[in-house]
Design a protein that fits this description.
Blueprint: E1 2-6, H1 13-24, E2 28-30, H2 31-39, H3 43-50, H4 52-65, E3 72-75, H5 86-93, E4 95-100, H6 103-111, H7 125-143, E5 148-151, H8 157-165
Amino acid sequence: MRIYLIGFMGCGKSSLGKRLAKRLNYPFFDIDTETEKKAGQDVQAIFDTHGELFFRRLEREVLLGITGHEHAVIATGGGTPCHEDNMDFMNANGITVYMKMAPQSLAYRLEYAQKKRPLIKGKKGADLLTLIHDKLVEREPVYMRSHCIIKGESAKPDQIISLVFGL
């Protein structure tokens, strides 16, 4: 079974995904990391050099390439489900888990994060919170199509295991 972790950037998909994969003895894939490997550049450089459309095409190739693994935990990029038919693809090829978080929680995490993220480049405080709110309004209808929804602030691997294997 493939488990796709989705949600806004900073909600903890990668860190929780690694722990979940270890607990299940599944391989772990981070779509952003795999896309960076494929491009030979980090996400910020891909956006700066080639633009978002190029990034989204690579991201899609990576997403489709993981289907060679019957069992895996996959942390998607925040925008992955919202482009092309990626959400339909993930729902048809595994279990999707939306790690839902309040905009304020996301803003706190993202303002102090070390990872560079093109979408929030140069944003802080109220500007960052406004951007997160606006993007969530845009993305959440897609995120809400997930098989499972959990509270990202307190998500634990065992909680996801219980939800996913209880379906």
